[in-house]
């Protein structure tokens, strides 16, 4: 199944046009991370402290090194961190 995902992403990227926006749970995102098909990570940090919860990137097989390329701060207090994978 993951090879189907990788080939479909490659096919969509060849078409050109707008970016592919992936929004979903940890298992969906982990699939794309493991395949190495994520070009940009946009992480939003909300100003709420939780006592428990699920890890953002659970069950990663390998470390993913990221390079911060931009930050955005919003009136709501949300901070968006934009990263590219280091090569």
UniProtKB/TrEMBL annotation:
Residues 4-79 form the Bacterial bifunctional deaminase-reductase C-terminal domain. Gene3D superfamilies: Dihydrofolate Reductase, subunit A. It holds the Pfam family RibD_C. The chain crosses the membrane at residues 20-41. It comes from the Bacteria. Keywords: Membrane, Transmembrane, Transmembrane helix. Signal peptide: none annotated. The keyword Protein transport does not apply. This is Dihydrofolate reductase family protein.
């Amino acid at each position: 199944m993951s090879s189907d995902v990788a080939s479909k992403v490659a096919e969509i990227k060849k078409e050109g046009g707008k970016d592919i926006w992936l929004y979903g749970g940890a298992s969906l995102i982990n699939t794309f991370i493991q395949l190495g098909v994520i070009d940009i990570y946009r992480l939003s940090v909300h100003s709420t402290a939780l006592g428990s919860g699920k890890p953002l990137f659970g069950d990663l097989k390998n470390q993913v090194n990221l390079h911060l390329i931009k930050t955005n701060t919003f009136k709501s207090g949300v901070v968006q961190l934009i990263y590219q994978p280091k090569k």
